[in-house]
Amino acid sequence: MINKIAIIGGGNLGAAIAKGLVKSGKPFKGEVIVTRRRVHLIKSLEQEGISVGQDNLKAVENADVVILAVKPYQLEDIISEIQPALSDEALLISLAAGVDSQRISEMASGRKSIFRVMPNTAISIGESMTCVSSYEATEEQDAVIRELFEPTGTVQFIPEELMASATVLAACGIAFALRFIRAATQGGVEIGFGSDLALKIASQTVKGAAELIIRGEAHPEAEIDKVTTPRGITISGLNEMEHQGFSSALIKGLITSFEKIENGSKKR
Ligand SMILES: NC(=O)C1=CN([C@@H]2O[C@H](COP(=O)(O)OP(=O)(O)OC[C@H]3O[C@@H](n4cnc5c(N)ncnc54)[C@H](OP(=O)(O)O)[C@@H]3O)[C@@H](O)[C@H]2O)C=CC1
Ligand SMILES: O=C(O)[C@@H]1CCC=N1
């Protein structure tokens, strides 16, 4: 039973997770406390039933789950700071991209039951794709983490060696998908829509395309075949996009992001 969750680092992701956990309602009913140094910037979270503060040690006291949502380079200092207040039973979750569990365990004096969780920012609206890896945790502890994050979207446990890939595909992926929507909107304006309407049409179209795959478990290419009339309009546009490097640009972008994580983690 989780009675208290402490989120250390109420920035973009920490605040989004707090909102997502509180909105999800179950299985968690206890306190969520979020800290950051410039606490005035997260005062508004209080209106959503989330406690805020500056004192990391106090936040971590009696917490069943501690989520570290600071930048990767701050992880070591934060862990040393909170360690005196961290209970032996607390589950420690790191969101830091590119810092592996063994390293986190070393920072925490050999602590076990460490999780790396990589949600994306859609967690604030209960639509995250959240990849999780667990390090020296029991099945029961895995289940606690699954149950905690499931109401905030889709949860997938993966081997830790795939965490960097998950970061690129799911976490950075939000930006990649949004850039598609933005580009489609700009194209929509060129062909006659006002920008608001173009954005509405482009975003609902992307949502519908994603739902066709998620609900129908269809393959994207099979759905594309249904839209591409021979000698038709769709295929001419689609092929022009491919001539301009559409798929290739996306794949190269994913690989570039992946290499950035890999090179970064080697430096740590
Ligand atoms: N899954 C995803 O989509 C994403 C994952 N990430 C990962 O999540 C982590 C957080 O990233 P992001 O939210 O973008 O970063 P932000 O910079 O937005 O948030 C980090 C927060 O930590 C706070 N902070 C810094 N020092 C302390 C301290 N000593 N005590 C308490 N709080 C502190 C900062 O606030 P202040 O300066 O006021 O203290 C800041 O708000 C990173 O490790 C990153 O790798 C990042 C982005 C997206
Ligand atoms: O861009 C970044 O470095 C972070 C990691 C995952 C998403 N944002």
TrEMBL record:
<dbReference type="InterPro" id="IPR029036">
    <property type="entry name" value="P5CR_dimer"/>
</dbReference>
<dbReference type="InterPro" id="IPR036291">
    <property type="entry name" value="NAD(P)-bd_dom_sf"/>
</dbReference>
<feature type="domain" description="Pyrroline-5-carboxylate reductase catalytic N-terminal">
    <location>
        <begin position="4"/>
        <end position="98"/>
    </location>
</feature>
<dbReference type="GO" id="GO:0004735">
    <property type="term" value="F:pyrroline-5-carboxylate reductase activity"/>
</dbReference>
<keyword id="KW-0641">Proline biosynthesis</keyword>
<feature type="domain" description="Pyrroline-5-carboxylate reductase dimerisation">
    <location>
        <begin position="160"/>
        <end position="261"/>
    </location>
</feature>
<dbReference type="InterPro" id="IPR028939">
    <property type="entry name" value="P5C_Rdtase_cat_N"/>
</dbReference>
<comment type="function">
    <text>Catalyzes the reduction of 1-pyrroline-5-carboxylate (PCA) to L-proline.</text>
</comment>
<feature type="binding site">
    <location>
        <begin position="69"/>
        <end position="72"/>
    </location>
    <ligand>
        <name>NADP(+)</name>
    </ligand>
</feature>
<keyword id="KW-0963">Cytoplasm</keyword>
<dbReference type="Pfam" id="PF03807">
    <property type="entry name" value="F420_oxidored"/>
</dbReference>
<keyword id="KW-0521">NADP</keyword>
<dbReference type="InterPro" id="IPR000304">
    <property type="entry name" value="Pyrroline-COOH_reductase"/>
</dbReference>
<keyword id="KW-0028">Amino-acid biosynthesis</keyword>
<feature type="binding site">
    <location>
        <begin position="8"/>
        <end position="13"/>
    </location>
    <ligand>
        <name>NADP(+)</name>
    </ligand>
</feature>
<dbReference type="InterPro" id="IPR008927">
    <property type="entry name" value="6-PGluconate_DH-like_C_sf"/>
</dbReference>
<dbReference type="GO" id="GO:0055129">
    <property type="term" value="P:L-proline biosynthetic process"/>
</dbReference>
<comment type="pathway">
    <text>Amino-acid biosynthesis; L-proline biosynthesis; L-proline from L-glutamate 5-semialdehyde: step 1/1.</text>
</comment>
<feature type="binding site">
    <location>
        <position position="56"/>
    </location>
    <ligand>
        <name>NADPH</name>
    </ligand>
</feature>
<keyword id="KW-0560">Oxidoreductase</keyword>
<dbReference type="Pfam" id="PF14748">
    <property type="entry name" value="P5CR_dimer"/>
</dbReference>
<dbReference type="GO" id="GO:0005737">
    <property type="term" value="C:cytoplasm"/>
</dbReference>
<protein>
    <recommendedName>
        <fullName>Pyrroline-5-carboxylate reductase</fullName>
        <ecNumber>1.5.1.2</ecNumber>
    </recommendedName>
</protein>
<comment type="similarity">
    <text>Belongs to the pyrroline-5-carboxylate reductase family.</text>
</comment>
